[in-house]
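REQUEST ID: PR-0412
SUBMITTED BY: lab tech R.K.
PRIORITY: routine
TASK: structure prediction, single protein chain
INPUT:
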Amino acid sequence: MEGLLSLTQRSPGLCVAASSLMFRVVHWLLQTLPRPKAVELDAFRAWKWKNLSVSLVHSLLTGSWAITCVLLWPEMLHQIYSTFTPVSYLLICVSTGYFVQDACDIIFTGHARGSWEFLLHHVLVIWCFLYAICTTHYVAGAVIALFVEVNSVFLHMRLMLKIAGAQSSPLYHINKMLNLFTYVTFRLGAQFYITWYILHNYSWLDHGGYFLTTMVLMNIMMLIYFYRLLRADFFPNRKAHPIQNGSTKFLRD
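STATUS: complete
OUTPUT:
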């Protein structure tokens, strides 16, 4: 383990590339698993199911990893700029590799236009994470940002259940409550905490303006997604919107 951590710090680019390849292998392996019949009937559903399956693996891995890092090194919560540990550094490299892989999957499968919001999110995340990797600053901030992956577990499950046509199942109703709770606590809570930290320490933080702008953009996106989530799961419209091939419209409902 020490050898891996040492290699990561010496060659972070190699680690990011290896992570991207690892998640691509996961993508390939997940294709061998059975899928709901509703997914097989539509090409876009089939692609989105595979994409979300890989995202779910990433969320399970990095969400629990991020929480473990903060539990082991609680000073991360108060020293977002300077706290650095090899394990948390490896986490950021692995997660960056996933976002690179996912962005490439969206682009090269021809879904960039319908998934532009996700691409924008990935670009913002990758840039911030690469800064942390290259400078070893804000590593703790990146770890806290990955708290959102706890919510992403339930968010991805929600979308997969919708794709499978299981909105009326007990599992969907349980998941939507857990999704709402974790969205407020882990996603919005983490985003707003990092934003507050940057504002509170703006005078001495390196490139504080860039990171503050990034967080404001991310906060706006998260609040829009939250509104869509509330509208779809708790205040649904009477008229249902069908899933459109090559479109992410159904992800907003």
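NOTES: The chain has ten helices and no strands.
REVIEWED BY: pending
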